[in-house]
Design brief:
With about 230 residues, the chain is α/β, with parallel strands linked by helices. The chain has one domain: 5'-nuclease (Rossmann fold, 3-Layer(aba) Sandwich). The chain contains six helices and ten strands, in the order βββααβαβββαβαββα. The strands form two sheets. Strands 1, 2, 3, 4, 5, 8, 9 and 10 form an eight-stranded mixed β-sheet that branches. Strand 1 and strand 2 form a beta hairpin.
Length: about 230
């Protein structure tokens, strides 16, 4: 017996194309937001010229959800943080910031950056080697949680604040969940967007939700909250 074929409809909605009908689209759409903190920062830097992670959560997730008429039920934030011995300034910044998020009900997942030797070219043309911090495992953790909560039917919309194309494979797993549970699911990718970078796109096979400057700025901290110098 052939299994029913699955496809993605407009807006990243996942549905069945054979004789098995999924649950109808719910009038109240429960949203869980999954935020890749570093990916969002670099997207805001590209689009708006932001020089530090000045976004506020869950405010930005709430703004995007409300604009779509969705009901935000949980926000989950994922980021790598610097080693305290290598950058106490940034370590202290992220420690404070993550504490504020936790106090506001955000589920936080953080991992220490992994430092590797990277060649750099000096102004005089010579090459040098420096230690550079890299995130490891953040996208994997996000994917695990999206699938886990999907199996638990914890959301109708998985809202990813990320442009990481590695997460495009996640859509296949969500299709499997939609098939097995015969239910309506949307997966969306929200990201800062401006006319200076009109070619920027969201995660493949998801619903793309560009965030304009006005929406972003309404959910941004003032300069007094930026990392201290030194």
């Amino acid at each position: 017996m052939r299994r029913p074929r699955l496809d993605i409809g407009p807006g990243g909605v996942i549905f069945l194309l054979a004789n098995v009908s999924p649950r109808s689209e719910p009038s109240r759409k429960r949203v869980v937001a999954f935020v890749d903190g570093q990916n969002l920062f670099y997207a805001a830097k590209d689009a708006f010229g932001c020089t530090w992670p000045n976004y506020r959560f869950p405010d930005l997730a709430e703004a995007v959800s409300t604009a779509k008429g969705w009901d935000l039920v949980e926000t989950r934030f994922y980021t790598g943080i610097p080693d305290e011995q290598r950058s106490k300034r940034l370590y202290d910044f992220w420690t404070r910031r993550l504490l504020v998020m936790r106090n506001r009900g955000v589920t936080v997942y953080s991992r220490r950056l992994v430092y590797r030797d990277k060649p750099v070219k000096l102004p005089d043309g010579r090459l040098d080697v420096v230690k550079k911090g890299e995130e490891k495992g953040i996208d994997v953790r996000i994917a695990i949680d999206v699938v886990r909560l999907g199996f638990q039917a914890a959301y109708d919309v998985a809202l990813l604040f990320s442009r990481d194309q590695d997460l495009s494979e996640l859509c296949q797993e969500i299709r499997n969940i939609a098939r097995d549970q015969s239910r309506w699911i949307k997966i969306a990718s929200a990201y800062p967007w401006s006319e200076i970078r009109p070619d920027v796109r969201g995660i493949r096979n998801s619903d793309w939700i560009p965030i304009d400057r006005a929406t972003y700025d309404a959910c941004a901290d003032s300069e007094e909250h930026r990392p201290t110098k030194g």
